[in-house]
Amino acid sequence: MTSTGRARTSGRPTLEQVAVEAGVSRGTVSRVVNGSLEVSPRALKAVQEAIQKLGYVPNQAARSLVTRRSDTVLLVVSESEARVFGEPFFGSLVRGLSQELSTTPLQLQLMMASTARQHDRVEQLVRNGHVDGVALISLHGDDPLPRNLVAAGAPVALNGRPMSDIGAVPYVDADNLSGAKAATEYLYQQGRRRIATITGPQDMAAGIDRLSGYRSALRGRRGGARLVAQGDFGQASGEAAMRELLEKDPQLDAVFAASDLMAAGALRALRTAGRRVPDDVAVIGFDDSDIARNVDPMLTSVAQPVGQMGRELAKLLIAQIRDPETTLSPVILPTELVTRESA
C-alpha cells in the first residue's frame, strides 16, 4: 500500500505524542496549547513544529474545563450593519485588533448591538462563559452595557472615551480635541475667516471633542465659532449639513468636517452649489482614510492611527484576561494633520 501527504500518527494525535516529537515534557506542551507565557522560545518553537507535523488539534471542550476559558473575544459594535461594513474606520480597527489577537490563542467574534435585545444577547454570552472578554466600539450616550458586562465578571475594553463614569474600564482613543484644533487653526492661518464645522454625533465623545477643538481654535478670533451643523459621521449627513451651512452663511470660506465621509459629502454639496474647492471654500476632514485620497480634490485630513487603536484595544483585553486584577490606564494616541489639495 502506498500513502500520500505528510506522515501522521495513527488515529488522533495526543498531547503525549506531541511532547515526544518535540522532545519536551507533556506539561510544556500543555502550557503552549493553553497560551501560557511560561515557555522558552526554543521550547515554543519545537512544540509548534511538532503540532504542525503531527496535525494535533486540541480538545477544546476538555481544555475549557481546565482553563475555564473559551478563547473567544467578542467585538461589539453599537451601530447598524450598513454602517459597520460601509465605513472604512471599522474595517481598519478590526484589522488591527485581529492582528494583535493572532499572536494569542484568542479568536475574534463580531456582533452588532444597537438594540436592547442585542445588548441582552451580549450579556447572556458573557454570563454563560462563552467569551473571555469584550471590546466595545462606537458607544452612544450613557450606554449601560459596559457596566453590565463588568458586573457579569467580563474583562472589558472600550474604543473611545466613555461619556460617563463607568469605573476602571480601560479605553483607547485618539486625541480628537487636539486634532480638530490643529485643523481649524490651519484654516485660520491660511487666511480663512468664515470657518464652519460639520460635527459628529453629540452623544459620542469623539463628536463632542472634535467640536470642542474647533471652538477652542476660534475662541477670541474674528468670525468666532458659530457656523455649526451636526452630522452623524456618514456621507449623506455631511452633504445635508453643508447645504445647511451655505444657507446660514453663503460667504463661508472654509469647513472642518469631523470625518472624511462627511467631508466627501460636503464636497458634493459645494460642487452642486457652484463653489470651487479650495479656491472658494477650503475643506478638511478627519480620519485620513482611503476616502481622503480618492475624492477630487484630495482631502486634507486629520490622521488618526486606527489600526494601532485596534491593536491597543486588543492589548488591554489580553492583559485583563491574563491578570483580572491588573490596573490599566487609558491609551490616548496622537493625531496629525495631512495636507492635500482641498485646503
Q: What keyword list fits this structure?
A:
343 residues; alpha/beta; 434 Repressor (Amino-terminal Domain); 3 domains; 6-stranded mixed sheet; 45% helix; elongated; DNA-binding transcription factor activity; DNA-binding
Can you describe this structure?
Residues 14-57 form the HTH cro/C1-type domain. One of its GO terms (molecular function) is transcription cis-regulatory region binding. Pfam families: LacI (PF00356), Peripla_BP_3 (PF13377). Keywords: DNA-binding, Transcription, Transcription regulation. The chain is an alpha/beta fold and 343 residues long. The protein has 14 helices and twelve strands. It has helices spanning 15-22, 26-33, 41-54, 60-67, 81-86, 88-101, 116-127, 145-151, 176-189, 205-218, 235-248, 260-272, 290-293, 306-322, and strands spanning 72-77, 107-112, 133-137, 156-159, 171-174, 195-199, 228-230, 254-257, 282-287, 300-303, 331-333, 336-338. The strands form two sheets. The protein has a six-stranded parallel β-sheet, with helices on both faces. It has a six-stranded mixed β-sheet with strand order 7-6-8-9-10-12, sandwiched between helices. α12 (260-272) links the parallel β8 and β9 (282-287). The N and C termini lie far apart (73 Å).
Task: Please provide a brief summary of the model.
By secondary structure, the protein is an alpha/beta fold.
**Arithmetic mean of pLDDT:** 87
Decide which structural class fits the backbone.
alpha/beta
- Strand proportion, as a percent range, falls in 15-25%
Uncertain residue ranges: 1-10, 60-67
Count of folded domains:
3
Oligomer: single chain
Q: Give me the number of helical elements.
A: 14
Q: What is the annotated CATH architecture of the largest domain?
A: 3-Layer(aba) Sandwich
Per CATH, the superfamily of the largest domain is Response regulator
Overall spatial form:
elongated
N/C terminus separation:
73 Å
Helix share, percent: 40-55%
Q: Could you give the count of β-strands?
A: 12
Please give the order of strands in the largest beta sheet. Answer: 2-1-3-4-5-11
Instruction: Report the order of strands and helices.
Output: HHHHEHHEHEHEEHEHEHEHEHEHEE
CATH fold-level assignment of the largest domain: Rossmann fold
